[in-house]
Amino acid sequence: MLTALIPYPNIDPIAVQLGPIGIRWYSLAYLFGLLIGMWVLRTRAKDPRTPHSPDDAIDFLTWCTLGMLIGARVGLVLFYYPHWIWERPGAIFAMWEGGMSFHGGGLGVLVAAILFTHFRKISLLPFLDEISAIAPLGLLFGRLANFINAELYGRVTDVPWAMIFPGGGDVPRHPSQLYEAALEGLALLIVLNALRPIALRKYAPGLLLGVFLSGYALSRFAMEFFRQPDDHLGFLIFGATMGQLLTFPMFFVGLAFIIRAVRNPRTQTS
User: Fold this and answer.
1) Which residues have CB under 8 Å from 106's CB, separation 6+?
2) pLDDT tens sequence across 19-62
3) Cα distances (Å, whole numbers) of residue 235 to 10, 24, 129, 158, 245
4) Dist. CA 65–CA 74, nearest whole Å
5) CA-CA distance, 168 to 232, in Å (whole number)?
6) Are 52 and 45 within 8 A, CB to CB?
7) Packing angle of the helix pair 54-80, 25-44 (nearest 10 deg)
8) How far is CA 229 from CA 11, 155, 176, in A?
């Protein structure tokens, strides 16, 4: 039998216990991601090249939270458990049961941004660029929370850093949540924010949005080779997982935004 060389730390998924109420790391991950993202969005609103005001950044926090939570839950049902629609439709809104879909959450934030910018008379694509530059923060915190919860673990392996996860059987597995946190979260965050000054100075709006969509798609596609597929879905067409299949439209939509932005350089610099 394979043996893991690094023991899983078994961190309590409940970060704070207040009487009968337990506050989970997963909830704090969403909270930290949203609050830090709002702070960055508000700070950057001082730049005259950004389309929003500091007050817009604060107000968008509520829109973003609702869009993300509703979209993530609806996306989970549509992409992974479509039979719930007719078998137990109430489960669509049962967020206390756990389970979120990033792709659905992303679509929810997109809808929230479209509605918010419409009512506030804000330019949509520049605003989406600003959101895209900070979105990997949420991915970083979310994947770390997945690791603490010992969920979405990796496939069986014999690499020296393998771990045995509770609920994953008595076999060592890739800590794929940490891989995703590093690539989809930290690396993508660094790339987008290094590119942001160049994008604001040289290219049409939409470049950062495109890089985020395509960058996430490539990262997620690669990481799915280390992540254990969903038990009830397994491997699908051509041996791909559902997570990989969902990256294809993201990649090509992102690529289209990149091409559009690069082909339309800004006529003025500042």
Assistant:
1) 71, 135
2) 777 778 878 888 888 999 999 999 999 898 899 999 999 999 99
3) 29, 31, 34, 22, 10
4) 14
5) 15
6) yes
7) 140
8) 24, 8, 11
